[in-house]
Amino acid sequence: MGRGATVAKFACRCGAVQGTVAEASPQAVNRVICYCDDCQAFAHHLGRPDLLDEHGGTDIIQVAPAMISFDAGREYIAGIRLSPNGLHRWYARCCNTPMGNTVGPSIPLVGTVAQVFHTNGQVADRLFGRPAGAIMAQYAIGAPEGASRRIGSRLMLSSIAKVIGWRLKGKAWPNPFFDRATKRPHYRVTVVPETERQRLRAFCGPTPRSFPRT
Ligand SMILES: [Zn+2]
Ligand SMILES: [Zn+2]
Questions:
Q1: N or C end of the chain, less CB within 10 A?
Q2: Ligand 1: distance of its center to the CA of 139 in Å?
Q3: Which ligand is nearest to the Cα of residue 213, counting in written order?
Q4: Angle CA(152)–CA(125)–CA(76) in degrees, nearest 5?
Q5: Closest ligand to 75 CA?
Q6: Which ligand is in closest contact with the Cα of 19?
Q7: Contact predicate 205/140, CB 8 Å
Q8: pLDDT tens-place string over residues 163-211
Q9: CATH number assigned to the domain covering 6-201
Q10: In the chain, where are the structural domains located?
Q11: Which of the ligands is closest to the CA of residue 137?
Q12: Residue 38 Cα to ligand 2 middle (Å)
């Protein structure tokens, strides 16, 4: 375990889905605020704008798949994608709490919202430190201070380094959302209809036309 590492508990808002993140420490994770319109749309789709900051930012803690395990409420977990090839955005159906974003079974990275760690007196800042920065500010509502547009190179390199390290250290598997042998998701995944995706745009920041959609 690294310096100050501990086992972090997390839970959905109603407490039915619970789990742990092993070896939680500021060094073990990346923590960034993401202002992208997909993260904003996801929160609004779930009816959970309370999870966004005043500029529409989502506070995301990126961890290795093998660090996460669910201990209760697996039957409530489901996934959505905002487009057919978009991220898998996992959530707890019991109370519409985001439970982790994944790029797919081959990229060992799970992005969890910081609020799920605010349970039983736990505080995300104490476990993981403050966010290292903010990204995708071109989608933000208003102008968040100190945020980079797109993905800042320092934060990008930090994410890539973590993913490579996790793979080398064998932390890509087990993955809480995918089966290792078949690479199939453990839970039901649905793609949000295009009409719903368009409806959600009204709640989010600007949509630059030239930017690739996810
Ligand atoms: Zn719940
Ligand atoms: Zn995002």
A1: N
A2: 29
A3: 2
A4: 90
A5: 1
A6: 1
A7: yes
A8: 999 999 999 999 999 999 999 999 999 999 999 999 999 998 886 554 4
A9: 2.170.150.70
A10: 6-201
A11: 2
A12: 6
Q: Could you read off the pLDDT of 106-157 as tens digits, one per residue? A: 999 999 999 999 998 999 999 999 999 998 888 999 888 877 666 667 888 8
Contact indicator for 25, 4 with CB cutoff of 8 Å: yes
Residue that the structure tokens 């992208």 belong to: 36
- Tokens 């100050």, residue? 4
Cα–ligand 2 centroid distance for 132 (angstroms): 15
**Tokens standing for residue 60:** 């995301």
The pLDDT of residue 214 is: 46
* Most distant CA atoms of the chain, gap in Å: 48
135 C-alpha vs ligand 2 centroid, how far in Å?
8
List Cα–Cα distances, 27 to 7, 24, 107, 130, in angstroms.
14, 8, 20, 11
Closest listed ligand to the CA of 136: 2
Q: Ligand 2 centroid to 186 CA: how many Å?
A: 23
